Sequence to fold (319 residues):
Amino acid sequence: MTANGDNKLEILAGIDRPLRIGTRQSPLAMVQAEMARTAILLAYGWRPDQVELVPMVASGDKIQDRALAEVGGKALWTKELDRALIEGDIDCAVHSMKDVETLRPDAFIIAAIMERADIHDRLVGADSIALLPRGAVVGTASPRRQAQLLRKRPDLDIRLIRGNVQTRLSKIEQGEYAATLLAAAGLDRLDMGDIGSEISEDEMLPAPAQGAVGIETLTASGHVRRLLQKISSTQTVRAVTAERLFLKELTADCHSPVAALATVDKLKINLRGEILLPDGSESVRGASDFDIGDVRAPARLAQKLIGQASADLKAIFGR
Fold:
């Protein structure tokens, strides 16, 4: 390795080969991994061959006919990448943060979260939720989206839809579903920003960590952790951490209709949260403003919402 800035990977990463970034091989996951790769190359002035992508098929991509909550939950998005990290096949892994389990094994750590993109949902197939035909079939695999839709439109026929963005869009075009909801950030990253109608956060509060891309590595890999810090957004880390602490207090899982959004203004955080019954017949919302160092504030908001919930809604969260 030379010391002229041409090749500092050995110094920064403790390795003398390309940095290997693991990713799911779906089109959106590959775009997000390429975003991380580009950010690292630019941050350190490395050549393109010094960071390589290692794509793999996740279990969640293989299962298309059932909700993931029924067959393993969010772990189905991460377990292949986890194995590759443990076995040394990759140095880090890129994830959509909303798909990462709230409680992760101690062996792994989210070392960086890149600057957050659009947090909204987009409705594809109609100009608004209100304009959907009565009884329209709407596809979603998200308990949150299902509950929020049914809260506004209990007449809708909500059915499971799986597959990548392109697959879901083709099902709308073929008339199998009248509409679906997709994350605006994902559509934008796929250069499909003109597709769908944006749903305001007041109408549908987003999933915790929606729009954020995280990079995970082994807790023991101090050199990789330090390397990734340079591409991490402090404001996004603070917001996503608050949302995930809210989730953690709720002991929420893939079955739990939960929404949360944190915004950071200097040294203050505003956190909004919502819990719902799956059929949308009950929802409890709340908000909290707190200092960035108040790590217990998200839990207090979660406790407040649970305290206002009915027995049925409490039961969704094991209370």
About this structure: Residues 1-7, 62-68 have pLDDT under 50 and may be disordered. The longest strand covers residues 268-276. The CA atoms of residues 126 and 132 lie 6 Å apart. The chain has eleven helices and 13 strands.
